[in-house]
Write a structure and sequence with these properties.
- The protein is of the alpha/beta class and 345 residues long.
- The protein has a domain of 219 residues: Rossmann fold, CATH 3.40.50.
- The strands form 5 sheets. Strands 3-2-1-4-5-7-12 form a 7-stranded parallel sheet, with helices on both faces.
- Helix 2 crosses helix 3.
- The structure holds NADPH dihydro-nicotinamide-adenine-dinucleotide phosphate and the ligand CC(C)=CCC[C@@H](C)[C@H]1CC[C@H]2C3=C(CC[C@]12C)[C@@]1(C)CCC(=O)C[C@@H]1CC3.
- The site of ligand LLCNDLXC has 18 residues, from helix 5, strand 9 and helix 9.
Length: 345
């Protein structure tokens, strides 16, 4: 058992603090006067006021060292959705989260803030202004989502005022911003391979894209408002930019901002989804012989061709959330942060 001394409310740990969201969160926490322990499988940077603990979150002993004298834990580690590795998702998002909760108990941590995902309610069909009381997806669109659902339930069910252990889940959607290794790089890679010519469906589907600083703001508000007498205990909160945008307009603004042409030709949604499903099945059958990673997975086609935007009214009401950076400004900042992905660079 770890020795317990009274933790300071300004001492926190960020599990997954070397990742895209995690690092932005760490930087903001340091600005706000927190002392931060980062726990991650890799160390990606150095920062004054931050102590790194390298390890796998499934390793309780390693975690305990990072949680010593910590009162608030942010858990934003996960394998990347693109890894599509069921056993890895199960091990890290489910078994690993159980270990995180257990280690929090042993270390005397008072608050656990989980980065969940709005996709826990998404089944590949339209969601318009979805609220947190939508049921969890019965048929999640991939293993990542399947394990994010179980992970969220584990964390919210662990909330116990009696034990002095409070939990909350933040559900962001479509996080983007400087240093994101997914959205802009995937988009530009697709454009460079000449595959960004088509709009899937009629192009009118609205989606939430959330600037990383707004997601960070939601996490810190949640941590600071989470108290035994607050409505946040054991609840999930959507955090978005609160400006749903046409998926294809958003993609076009990033593409054009970086000097590429926006897609112009339309393809029927059901046709592209059917082809993606076929390719995915073929990849599954051939997996023992050869590992293929198709660009157009059914999950990606569903994300690109359906409405999926969420209400953050609950976060506004319970924790005074308002996005800090509007979408237009967020897109400008993001485009400027990727000079190496500019056409011709
Ligand atoms: N990006 C998005 O659009 C959205 C993200 N989310 C959630 O936000 C969180 C952060 O996402 P994001 O910043 O994009 O992801 P990143 O992959 O950038 O960050 C996750 C970090 O966790 C680390 N990690 C993975 N497995 C382990 C492990 N077993 N032990 C310790 N550390 C580990 C990763 O290391 P390594 O890179 O080596 O794997 C990485 O540094 C995730 O929980 C994700 O599900 C939710 C909604 C949308
Ligand atoms: C809204 C949301 C949850 C975004 C998450 C990030 C990624 C899932 C997207 C980032 C770039 C997107 C993209 C496509 C699908 C979804 C993304 C990977 C396509 C592959 C969809 C089909 C195309 O025509 C090309 C797109 C490239 C960019």
């Amino acid at each position: 058992m770890a020795t317990r001394t009274r933790p300071s409310s300004k001492r926190c740990a960020v599990i997954g603090g070397s990742g895209f969201l995690g690092r932005h969160l760490v930087e903001r926490l340091v600005d706000r006067g927190y002392t931060v322990n980062v726990f991650d499988i890799r160390q990606a940077y150095e920062l004054p006021g931050v102590t790194f603990h390298q390890g796998d979150l499934c390793d309780r002993q390693a975690l305990l060292l990072a949680l010593k004298e910590v009162s608030v834990v942010f858990h934003c580690a996960s394998p990347a959705p693109a890894s599509d590795d069921r056993a890895l998702f199960q091990r890290v998002n489910i078994d690993g989260t159980r270990t995180v909760i257990q280690a929090c108990h042993e270390a005397g941590v008072q608050k656990l803030i989980l980065t969940s995902s709005a996709s826990v309610v998404f089944e590949g069909t339209d969601i318009k202004n979805g609220r947190e009381d939508l049921p969890y997806a019965k048929k999640p669109i991939d293993y990542y989502t399947e394990t994010k659902i179980v992970q969220e339930k584990l964390v919210l069910e662990a909330c116990s005022k009696e034990k002095g252990f409070l939990t909350v889940a933040i559900r962001p959607h479509g996080i983007f911003g400087p240093r994101d290794p997914q959205l802009v790089p995937i988009l530009i890679d697709t454009a460079r391979r000449g595959k960004m010519k088509f709009i899937i469906g009629d192009g009118s589907n609205l989606v939430d894209f959330t600037y990383v600083e707004n997601v960070v703001h939601g996490h810190i508000l949640a941590a600071e408002h989470l108290k035994a007498d607050s409505p946040l205990c054991g609840q999930a909160y959507h955090i978005t930019n609160d400006e749903p945008v046409r998926f294809w307009d958003f993609m076009s603004q990033i593409l054009e901002g970086l000097g590429y042409s926006a897609p112009r030709y339309h393809l029927p949604y059901t046709l592209v989804y059917g082809i993606a499903l076929l390719l995915w099945l073929m990849a599954l059958v051939l997996r023992p012989l050869i590992r293929i990673k198709p660009t157009f997975t059914p999950m990606r086609v569903a994300l690109a061709g359906t409405h999926h935007y969420y209400s953050c009214a609950r976060a506004k009401k319970d924790m005074g959330y308002q996005p800090l950076v509007p979408l237009r400004e967020a897109i400008v900042r993001t485009v400027e942060s990727y000079p190496h992905l500019r056409k011709g660079a």
